[in-house]
Structures are given as C-alpha cells and as structure tokens.
Amino acid sequence: MTAEKNSADGTTLDLPSEREILIARTFDAPARLVFEAITRPEHVRRWWAPRTRGEMLACEVDLRVGGAWRYVMRASNGMEVGFSGKFLELDAPTRIVQTEIFDPFPEAVSVVTVTLTETGEKTRLQSRILYPSKEVRDQVIATGMEHGMRESYLQLTELVASLR
Amino acid sequence: MFETLSALAEPNRLRIVELLRAGPQPVGEISQRLRLRQPQVSKHLQLLKEVGLVGVQPVAQQRVYQLRPEPFRKLHAWVEAYRGLWDARFDELAVVIEDLKQKEKENARHDRRKK
To answer: How many whole angstroms separate alpha carbon A17 and alpha carbon B55?
Structure first.
C-alpha cells in the first residue's frame, strides 16, 4: 500500500509488511549534505518538529556506534512527544541503523534503518522502521494522525481568518 | 481501523479483496478463481462483512459479494495523515539542505578569493 503526493519530490509512505513502515523522499543535494542535515543536532532542530506541528524542546545526538540520541517536541496540542534510542551502525554518508523508543512505550523498541542513495545530483532518503509488533506500528500511525488532524484544523482556522 | 487492518492482514482475505476489485463475485466464483475451498471462502467473507469491507446482495440463487468503499477511504485517510507529518518534516529538511548547499558554495568562493 502506498500513499503519495502528486509531485515527483513528494514523500511516499509504504506498509511493506505488518510490522514495518517505509518512508521515502528525494532531495536535491549530494548524500553527504543530507547526512549532515539529518545527524547534526543544530540542523535536526530545524526540521524534526515542523513549524505547523510544534516546537523542538530537546535534541541530543551522540553520533557514534553505541551513542545515544533523543528528540523531544511539544506538539501544537500541548502534548510532549519524546523519542530516543542508540546508534547500532553508522556508515557515513549512506547508512544509519538506530533503535527508537517512543516515551510512553519504553518496552517497545523499534529499529530504524536510514539509507541515502545518491544518483546524479539527487539523493533518495529511505527510512525503514521495524516495529516490535503490528499493534505498536498501528498505534504510531494513529498518533501521527492526531497531529495531522490538528494541523488541518489550524490550516482551516488560518483560511477562515484570511477570508475575513 | 484496527479491525480493517487485521482483516486485511490474512493473506487469503487480502486475495479475496484484490479479486473483488475487478467487480462483484459470487462465492463459488471466488472459490474457483483462488482455488480455495468454498466453506473457507465463506468464512473469510463472513469476517470481511462483519468489519464492513464487503457487502452481499442476493442475485437469483446466488449471494454476490462486493467491496464497500468506506473502510478503504478511512484507511487511506489514516495513512495519509501520518505521511503528512513526514512530508511536513521533509519540506523543512529540504530547506535546511538548501542552506547547507548555499553555505558550501559561499565557502568555496571565499576560498578561491583567498588563494
């Protein structure tokens, strides 16, 4: 199953198996710059909590095998959303394997594999998240949906305001 | 939503749903095309009906099954909203990457001037 935006550079989301989510997007830059943007905390702060969805409260990255990472954002609905984990494999600038734990479910450890494939001037980013169970995966999508709906309400509010 | 996903997670039920995309079918036809025993197909159809993925209509002596669009729309909206979160993130990541590219170009110019 694939959900896709009607543009060549849109983000795609696939559910390749019961326990996985695969998110992909192509960026107009060499892999080394994409790698820098997704691993250095000063850069991650700028994109992981999108402006329309919330603000970044914490972003710590100890980029070495066995090193820990932690991201916390305050979502637009006031809820704090925290993720953390450890780096299992690092192969700059093409591959990162890390564990990921969502704060409310400390027992549920997911494994995220990020691959960067450079072709010409572009780089394809693929993030494959393997959840410990189907239930955890579905819960994560459901949480994302709440944020998504919240955002559409905000956009609606803006639209209404602009019509005045 | 979880019911819809669980129902579709069983491979033979997913095959039945895929087959019904072509149009409504009676049980016998489904069973023949997928080479599954009819009682097994009936059991799967019963479950698909319970979660609202299929509807049934009597036509002559047969019970004809067809897909119902509503759960598929909900499923799509559900996945789409999560994709939207990542799309918003990646839109901003693209801006960060563009800044890094510009900075690199400026540094290269600066280095050339120094030489």
So the answer is: 27
Q: What is the pLDDT of residue B113?
A: 79
Of the listed ranges A51-55, A93-97, A145-149, the one predicted with least confidence = A145-149
Which of A 77-106 lie inside 8 A of B, CB atoms? Answer: none
Question: How many helical (H) and strand (E) elements, i.e. helices and strands, does chain B have?
Answer: 5, 3
Which chain B residue has its CA at the smallest distance from A42's CA?
Answer: B96
Please state the ipTM of this predicted complex.
Answer: 0.79
- In whole numbers, what is the pLDDT of chain A averaged over residues? 83
What is the spatial distance between Cα A85 and Cα A63, in angstroms, rounded to a whole number?
11
Mean pLDDT of A100-124: 92
Tell whether A16 is within 8 A of chain B (Cβ). Answer: no
- Rounded CA-CA distance A153/A156 in Å is 5
When computed from its CA atoms, the radius of gyration of chain A, rounded to whole angstroms, is 17
Contact B16, B45 (CB under 8 A): yes
pTM over 0.90: no
Q: Which residues of A touch B76 (CB under 8 A)?
A: 3
**Longest Cα–Cα distance in chain A:** 54
Of residues B81, B93, B96, nearest to A145 (C-beta): B81
Please state, for a pLDDT cut of 70, what percent of chain B lies above it: 98
Q: Does B85 touch chain A (CB under 8 A)?
A: yes
